[in-house]
Amino acid sequence: MTSSGILVSLAGLIDRSVYDRRGYRVGRIVDLVVASGIGVEHPPLHGILVRRRLKVVFIPYTGIAGICRWEVYLTTSGLQPHPLPGHDNWVALARDLLDRRIPITDGSRTARVSDLVLVCTVDEVRLVGADLSIRTRLRRLGIPRMRRSVAPQRAYDWAALAAPCER
Predict the structure, then answer these.
(1) Is 39 contained in some domain?
(2) How far is the first Cα of the chain from the last one, in angstroms, to the nearest whole number?
(3) Each residue of 110-143: pLDDT tens digit?
(4) Taxonomically, which superkingdom (predicted)?
(5) What's the CATH number where 143 sits?
(6) Residue of 165, 126, 134 whose CA lies nearest to 151
(7) If you ran DSSP here, which 8-state letter would residue 53 be given?
């Protein structure tokens, strides 16, 4: 698993605040969307789904300034929604993969995804691993601060589990 950069837990990001460039809270994270495809070892982040009141909007990766202290900061003032990308080339991580059974390495057995691990570098965010442990699933039931920890020793490299992203 690639470790150059900051490791971020998907479970720790869900329901966290999103701020615009002026520092105003504009919504909460509902899900992260990655671009999928055959041959992509570590899929890049394509955008995020943000809830504001009762509406969920898509913000592309180009509109994200960064992830800092488990909050997402945008490059724009206010929340400027974009149309959702076509469903054939993207995967909503929490909706499509979290708590789902996926094949492990050789495909002879499956395991339930407890958490997904992303790596944040200066210029991109990529899906790099999946934590399949029961310990992590139980940690998600605890207080929100506990959801943010990443245990790289329990995470499988996403390149070995990439089959679920290929539709």
Answers:
(1) yes
(2) 23
(3) 888 888 889 988 888 899 888 887 777 667 666 6
(4) Bacteria
(5) 2.30.30.240
(6) 134
(7) T
What would you report as the CA-atom Rg of the chain, rounded to the nearest whole angstrom?
Answer: 15
Extract the runs of DSSP E, i.e. beta strands, from 5-153: 6-9, 17-19, 25-35, 45-52, 55-60, 64-68, 71-74, 90-92, 101-104, 109-112, 115-120, 125-131
> Does 131 map to a domain?
yes
Q: What is the pLDDT of residues 38-92, one digit of tens each?
A: 567 889 998 999 998 888 999 999 899 888 877 899 998 887 777 776 667 788 9
Does residue 60 fall inside a structural domain?
yes
Q: Are 28 and 7 in contact (CB under 8 A)?
A: no
Identify the bridge partners of residue 66 per DSSP, sorted by sequence position. Answer: 73
Overall domain count for the chain: 1
Judge whether 136 and 110 are in contact, CB under 8 Å: no
Interatomic CA distance for residues 36 and 160, integer angstroms? 15
